[in-house]
Amino acid sequence: MSKEVETPEKTEPTASFQELVRTHREKHGGTLAAAMQATVKKHPEAHQAFLAAGESLDGGADDTDDDFLTLVEQCQAMRKCSRTEAMQRIARSHPNVHREYIEQANSKEG
């Protein structure tokens, strides 16, 4: 009597947080911030892995049309960080957008 040996099923590698966010936006539309929040709720393990790896959505290609404060809000939503930390991250990852923001703020003063 021979026993069948079970082989473990090959599992698909878990999709990255970025892929999950992108898929959510393609499927449901909406803002990047809303997609990130929904993805964090639905896939907390992917979000934790994303944060642990020190990865960033801050410099995503589809964010280039957003203004500085929109990017800051998106970063805050994704990382659950303070506004100050988000502003620092976005200033580093999007120097041109930050420069435009500063120039606009300075032009309003003068």
Question: Would you kindly provide a written description of the structure presented here, covering whatever features stand out?
Answer:
The chain is built from six helices and no strands. With 110 residues, the chain is mainly α. The N and C termini lie far apart (90 Å). Helix 2 crosses helix 3, helix 4 crosses helix 5 (83-93) and helix 5 packs across helix 6 (95-109). Residues 6-13 and 59-64 have low confidence and may be disordered. The protein has one domain (17-109). The longest helix has 15 residues, at 95-109.
Please write out the topology.
Layout: H1 17-28, H2 32-42, H3 44-52, H4 68-79, H5 83-93, H6 95-109
Give structural attributes.
6 helices; 64% helix; mainly alpha
Question: What is the arithmetic mean of pLDDT?
Answer: 79
> End-to-end distance, in Å?
90 Å
Any low-confidence stretches, pLDDT <50, length ≥5? Answer: 6-13, 59-64
Estimate the global geometry from the Cα principal axes: elongated
Note the beta-strand portion: under 5%
The number of helical elements comes to: 6
Helix and strand sequence: HHHHHH
Number of strands: 0
Structural class: mainly alpha
Biggest pleated-sheet summary:
none
Number of structural units classed as domains: 1
Portion of residues in helices? 55-70%
CA radius of gyration is 19 Å
Task: Give a short summary of the structure.
This protein is mainly alpha-helical. It is built from 6 helices and no strands.
